[in-house]
Design goal:
Elements: E1 4-7, H1 9-16, H2 20-32, E2 43-44, E3 51-56, E4 59-66, E5 71-79
Parallel strand pairs: 1-5
Antiparallel strand pairs: 2-3, 3-4, 4-5
Length: 88
């Protein structure tokens, strides 16, 4: 059963600011989270128990999963050096 995927305003701005090649790679992974919100390589963050991350090259997609209503909420899409700032 599919999950609905939603991007926060911040994540949407971050995705739209990417170059074309990176944008294509990120969007592919974002759409795939609707089919499998815990793909191979995804990790639960230690900083906040409710958050997960998946790597796409040097970028990180930080998101939450609500299994009850089948929603994936993407909160950040940024370079690995900036992805975890302000999450605590």
């Amino acid at each position: 059963m599919k999950y609905n995927v939603f991007l926060s305003r911040r994540a949407e701005k971050e995705v739209l600011s990417l170059d074309d090649k990176t944008y294509s790679r990120i969007i592919t992974v974002i759409f795939s989270l609707g089919d499998d919100p815990r793909p191979s390589g995804s990790r639960k963050l230690k900083v906040r128990d409710s958050l997960w991350r998946v790597r796409v090259g040097n970028f990180r997609i930080v998101y939450s999963i609500d299994d009850r209503v089948r929603i994936v909420g993407i909160s950040r899409v940024s370079d690995r050096k900036d992805a975890y700032n302000g999450l605590q």
